[in-house]
Amino acid sequence: MTTAAATHLTAARPTRAFRGLKALALGLTALALGIAGTTAPATAAPLILTGSSFTGDERAELVAKEGDSFRIWKNTKGQDRSWPWGESTVHGSGWGGVDPRTVYFADLDGEGHKDLVQLSGDSFRAWYHNGASFGSNPWTGDFRTGGGWSGHDPSAIWFADIDGDRKADLIQRSGDVLRYFRNLGDGKSWAAPVTVGYGYGGHNPRAIWFADLNGDQRAERIERFGDQFMVAPNTTGGGGGWPYGTVYFTGAGWSGHDPSAIWFADITGDNRADLVHKSGDALKYFPNNGSGSGHTSWAAGVGAGSGWSAVDPKGIYFA
User: Cβ–Cβ contacts within 10 Å for residue 39, how many?
Assistant: First the structure.
């Protein structure tokens, strides 16, 4: 079975706009939180760190497509909510003419390191991270997976763990719907698609993200909705069915910002995705201060880079 397997839609669901307005009208969302949010409740349970990153320490590294290669900055201080980056290294070759939108970093085999994935022709080409120490060549050997992907918008494809098994699943916008293919075998085999969203036909795919905001290993569905972010919490992990619960809203002041310059990635290493933004020359991240029933709050922004004004944000990744 390929990842391009067809699916038959069930009865029509409300559009994204209708769902968002209904949630507002019924008061089902938490009070919209500003970027300088509150801290997590003191009674929050301790986390068992189970995330993945380029180095395998749960803290996302900064990766930039640089000419023919990738430059990677090691995250050494993210846990302190300070400037996170230490030394950098360059890996890979032959990437100069590759569309940066076709490049993804995802933990396909669940062993804690981010693997390199490229949409290439009709399928995906993938390189497992071999566990090498920082500075050594991390990618040895490659394989092909999936089929029927030629002509699909690479910005409308995501890799994130929906079912909570630590292996990245494959998500795609197909026409009006979002659907995901469960990872059945270290990124080499995929289940039939499951619908995880309706009403997305005219929506900018760069303004949709999948990231774990509450540390339960299951990715939430996040989308920019006007001035804020609308979050659909992943309450069930799918299990072959619909994974998301009642939406809520977080953040303020985000209308007009380029969604390609917004990321959700775990910079601090606490299993909760932080909010990262490129504004002009600077990179900044807002630590996730806690996410629970109907809310996510954010700490004040922390500087994470300068000199980025001329860099295409589509060639910036956090892995």
Answer: 10
Residues 13-23 have pLDDT tens digits of: 334 444 443 34
Phi, psi of 259 (to 5 degrees): -65, -20
DSSP 23: H
Pairing, β 62-66 against β 316-318? antiparallel
Contact criterion met (CB below 8 Å) for 166 and 52? yes
Residue 146: closest CA among 184, 103, 198: 184
Query: Would you give the end-to-end CA distance of the chain in angstroms?
Result: 29
pLDDT digits (tens, 9 = 90+) for 168-203: 999 999 999 999 999 998 999 999 999 999 999 989
Stretch among 163-167, 172-176, 223-227, 234-238 having the lowest mean pLDDT: 234-238
Token pair 């993200």: residue: 209
Note the pTM of the prediction, 2 decimals: 0.84
Phi/psi of residue 118, each to 5°?
-135, 130
Contact of 76 with 58, CB cutoff 8 Å: no
Q: Bin 205: left if φ > 0, else alpha if -120 < ψ < 50, else beta.
A: alpha
Strand ranges (DSSP E) for 161-202? 169-174, 177-181, 194-197
Closest by Cα among 251, 280, 242 to 13: 242
Q: What is the CA radius of gyration of the chain?
A: 18
> 276-309 in b/e burial notation, b at 16+ Cβ within 10 A?
bbbeeeebbbbbbbbbeebbbbbbebbebbeebe
The DSSP bridge pattern shows strands 228-232 and 194-197 to be: unpaired
The correct CATH number of 62-318 out of 1.10.1740, 3.30.70, 2.115.10, 2.60.40 is: 2.115.10
Helix (H) or strand (E) holding 290: strand 288-292
Mean pLDDT of 71-95: 96
